[in-house]
């Protein structure tokens, strides 16, 4: 490999050696410190430097095969991308290192983002890469029939959900016109796909394909994105340029950066193409996205025919034109040391003085978010820190808020970004003391401390990756700021003035539609810029957040974290909206935008919002017809009332409500009324004014009125109570019940005439009152006709609530029932049923004493015992209830239902045995009923033994039940006990059965009797029982 002495080669070699030395140093350190955090983030060959480059990137850029092999041997990630989204194979191709590119390709490098246009450094590598693409296409897409579904995946295809099929894009790239013809003929491809293919073919110099697409497939260079002519000029494909110009294609169309074909002819130093474009009428007066004129582009790129351009009409006048960052072409010539052009641009200035200036040869430090974030992320990795909370899609939301936070020290903000962006990745530089002359030195000792604070703040106010830490939404600025502000920042409290909640719904429950185009955004911002100086705005939409600061009325300091440098000066609403739309990728004519206006507490007094009027006298509508006409002509369908609320103009709201010309129920394009807008923005002063309107539905203001009640704003409460629709204040009534505010409850029921039986939020006022246990409140509701028997859904009634286990209001409710204890509520249950269902023994005792009938069944036919048995309460709570109910319940054994209840109780209470309760039950149960009881085909005694429930057996035998009922296999209970070798205390139970006269000679189906089973037992104790039985009761042996 020939020696390369270029500065770039020397730089890359130095960076390779520095990075390798750093990796070796870190690995040695980690070996000596094998504990967290060092063992958690071990360093290997994939460690990258501040530019995001790995050793493999530098080896590829250098074309050094030995270094490349060393990297591959150490399992380096071959597809890792650097900060510019470049893989190693990109760098190899762009630097003309074919052997390195081929080696990486053979190692299966991902080539889905590698294109022929990146191979133009070397014709040989262009031919090689084209052949590689064609071989893959032939294998994956043998015909155009299934151009969307590859037969095989590979290095050139990674499924990313592309709008444009990868097969057709690669075919256009390589110039396979026959495949394209077949695909277009068979599938009738839509125009946007065909137009895209024209651009791809032009970018790669495929003249034959360009001709076919333009002449036969009728492709056009559609506006937006880029054009075939631009791509052909940009990539230096002269024949394609000549052909396109011969076809009279549009020459002044712009790409997404607002550059034209002439722009790229100048930056490529293509004088011939530039002359042809100018001769054909190419404009030389336009500006691109950042405001650069063609003269800016010529100077920055070092265009050799700049002097010829200056001779063009009007071109020389652009010498004084500033781009959006405030730089003239002369400034760029100074920054980039374009000495040959300085005499042409300096206009008599002292060239020696210019070359001695601080700006000479020193381009400004970029401060866009990518430059800052790359350094922030690298510092964390360098210090073995967790990087999970970095959002790889950007931190515009965090930068936006920090810009607002430092608005009164805007120069400080941008200077801090420059400090972080300018860091070269050196650990030593992180800990050098800051220059005392820097304002940052008053807050931070060194760059590391500055990085730490600003990284934390940025992650916090971005807040997209912090959902595992807290529950705050990304747009919840107020709580984000309140949680972390210091005691010295109390006067910096975040105060929202206008808010558009992210997942908002209108008054009818439909999602609010925030889709807006240029006209809608311009109208909103035009009125907002009338607000007093000191207001901040945020624009969230299209996956990007930007902000603006109202330095003075109608003048905005606009900020976008993607801007390379600070925007020069202030601007107006129209320019802000235009920049917003131009710079946000994917923001079409109608994109979803959220807009927020806010200020900080320290600025409130100077704002004087309480006296701000958004409209001039002549702008106020003089009739309802004028107000309606205003809304019809509004891009957002705003009424004047919407605008007054949006701009926080209290005097305007007063005037408009007083005049009465605006329809307070009118909806804007998003579906919101002015009232809903005020509610979303917590504009309480305006909501207080809305209360004076008799047409306002108070249920929509429920949250606001309840908040006024909590903060004891008596004037708001008085206005609400005096409102003609005060009956809608049920939400306030519920709040008053929770606070046990009896005077307000009485006023709401007496003065506002609220319907006490109205259901709201799945509850009833009486249910809430009963839960307080406040006798005075409960009695007040009874006095106003509150019913115990209605439901609010979910099987909830006040009657049920009254007899919950923790209820404190049973006495007052029983007194209210006053002999009506048997009445069923909406769920079909009486008071005693609810008490039984809740296993509330105290309530049962009180109800029984008051005369409740324990035999009453529900509307569904359930008895109190069934309700008690089905309850979720534990047996401890149920036992006392069973004792009470069994003691009161007179079973009628002549009825099937009572016999069934009795048998069910025998089983249930046996399994949860309490001797006192069971004896109460047995008193009402004849032995023959128990003898006839069979569970799953088994006699009751057998069922108890099989379920190891032995405690009730003594009571049952003493009650006189049959001692020898036979099971299906002919066994008696005694036989079952003898054979159940794992039963506890079975010796006593066996002896008890023998004492109660159990037969020991009766044979089962196997011909064995109890005596024989005992004699054959391996249990000595049981064999002894058998001997004792023989000697003590010879008659029993038969």
Automatic annotation (TrEMBL):
Record Pfam families: Ank, Ank_2, Ank_4
InterPro entries: Ankyrin_rpt (IPR002110), Ankyrin_rpt-contain_sf (IPR036770)
SUPFAM superfamilies noted in UniProt: Ankyrin repeat
ANK repeat feature ranges: 51-83, 224-256, 827-859
Name of this chain's protein: Ankyrin repeat domain-containing protein
Organism: Legionella taurinensis
Keywords: ANK repeat, Repeat
Lineage: Bacteria, Pseudomonadati, Pseudomonadota, Gammaproteobacteria, Legionellales
